[in-house]
């Protein structure tokens, strides 16, 4: 199964600006073809600087004069090399099960995942289950059954607490809530922005990864696209780390976004709870 | 069963001040004896102005010069007159079940009871039960089993959301959470500050009342004192309406609080869920 | 100057429902003509029950079967009777300046006006000014200069804190912020829903009233319509008390709202800070 | 000037537990002597695992059986090697002023620093100043003059918004507010936990660093200890990254904390605004 993903973004740039884009597929797959084209008022803008972000992510920095900024990204991706995607072996000497810095980082409360605030709720609701996979699966099912997918119900300031209490949200809120409840149970969890073949309506999507049994496992409480088809873009603590665009300087208004994501052949079927690892 | 309640408050008044006290037993019982003594630097302060607050409450306004302000209140109270405490009959003509203004008021979100924010959670957790008493009882049990009574875990700014998510609080938080979940289910609910014989450690206490079947029914999710022994002080939307002291002007620091509340004979036994109406 | 106001609301009622409407002009003006017409699927619905709300407000309760509910309200209003609108004289005996229960109520923190949380900010920013009118005027100017009127920037859960920190909001947020800062300075303040001739685009509008010098004075930090032309609808602690519609039972979806408000002759000019009392 | 710092912590461990300690001085100084002693019920606990955290930080992981856990850390530190502490030279090729990943990370909103929420306020209050150092200095002065240092006024869930609005906080709140306002103005900013000779009462302390002119500059809006004497412990987005202890597994209660920090000779004098770089 191969994947073709793309996004086309248009911005109105009002004064000289610096922009960070987090739209490219993360490293880890075989790249058959890939293009990132950027123009300002239809003239080519010199190449962006690429920065490596966690878990293979690639962030592109642009410096642009005023005008209409068009960004077009397209990639054709094959399955990852055979060696990728294996669970990390005992990566820390000495004491089995002690977390590394990566796991510690993703245990901590973050902007949209105030896990320190929700320990009581999480322990009361899920603390009686065996740690690790059973808790993460129960969290995913609980969110799916309790939170409605309602576009416009939340905004850029909304946290997991809002999703839990209002019972509404969009994909980022579902992911934030999953992360928050995991961390509140001492399970490292992180946010993943993805291209998601099969998503309707098509857009950027978000899922979460939880750490247990020595690996990061991917869950999508929205159940709106099969995990097997997804292509990782950015990985971080929450949406603050993974926004597809950040304006660092100047006045820039997003005017349009168009995302596509397809697979060759039939879309995989996903039971939404079977263990899955996103490469 | 008679009740004797008292409170002794001491304040340090730094400049001429106006203070509102909400400490007297509400009207509705036979008063055997009652005293409110106020001194400033051990000299008697002229009589306070008494204002009537909802449901028989009595608020006392003081104007005081600087000094050490001592407030001493004591009341001996017998059972209410025989006619009190009956369910309000059909108080509204025409359409049975339509709320009056009192019920409408206590359906609305308030400072510490953001019921608008919690509709999704309340409906998902309790919406499947029959409306009215079954929902209120389920809410009370849920709070009792899920929230720990932890002095110091919350502060004067904490809302019902904090109690729900952190799983901790004190009596006002338990009452706020009960009120919030009721209102989110369209059940009018309100906050009651009480003297509570049997409470340990003794202090001012708070419970909530929910409206169904044509009357206000009292619930105490803390289960820390029998409802039958309680003496109503102030009734309102939440703790903002019922604080035992409010400083309206000047600089006033509370230095000490001592509350007592006893009943003659044995303390009643309370199963915590049987319907109870506080007079 | 006469005023003509109207609103036409359409709802989709999915099951038998009870609805509360707060759309009629409050008492206090000479009523030349007034109609409230309610139909369900184009058949007349029996008369609503009218409840009196604070400061002359009038709330209408409807019980309706499923269908398309149409509500049409229209009123022609002349200046208030000559005796109306005078400052309340010394309404409390004994101690001048001590608040009555009305003023105490509007000193308290409410759902969207968490004044207890903002005392530090309010005192630091405005506490150096003389109490009363100078503080209220400074608050109004500060909000006007600091908060942008941005439709869609807030939602029904947003509080005054959101307006203060994000620097954005709509009329209800401006009013909530004015109320919050006043209360934090011990100035009673309340929310008023109004018809506002001259508002663009036309809609329901909201302003706030602050109590000083023995009267309630009206301020509109949005400066989007002259206060003299406004017609009071509902008065309360904040938007929770004054919503133009509340669904008390059943499933009801608002489908359309159309508001008009005009004055005879020229629209008055408003300097936005001169003392004004809304009748 | 040499520094001697220490901390002694005692915990009650109720069941087998994993604990992370962030108490050791960060790398960057000449270490004259350093000890970390850990005992459980007075028996030596095998050596902790040390993990490197950002900016030289060192985190120690312990696995402990139940009992009384005693942690004792002590270090004597001299000035950093001559080559340390120089501003990072042009670390990024190509486009001057474009941030690196480190700067991007510290531009993002975090748990206690919701900078996305406060852009409006920050821009209105400080946006008229020249970017960089003038803004950071104005922020520091504003916080110092507007926020009172009040132990107990906030708790572990409090954010910068609470400090801004209540006008109260402790050192972590001061740092969170400085960070939040900087990030809202597009200035990278981060949290630093330190030993602070001269602090009264002695305890762990927190300051913030802002990025401008190609380096991280240290500010302390509390003005409670001279920056020159401080010893960096942990660096991160906010207090979530830098807690001196985190319990990763098991039940662990902190029983006592004792911190010391001294310098040889006189304590430096700090004008609190002069540029300072903490090594």
TrEMBL record, chains A, B, C, D:
Protein name: Transglutaminase
Matches recorded under SUPFAM superfamilies: Cysteine proteinases
Residue ranges of every copy of the Transglutaminase-like domain listed in the record: 163-223
Upper taxonomic lineage: Bacteria, Bacillati, Actinomycetota, Actinomycetes, Frankiales
Source organism per UniProt: Protofrankia coriariae
Cited InterPro entries: Papain-like_cys_pep_sf (IPR038765), Transglutaminase-like (IPR002931)
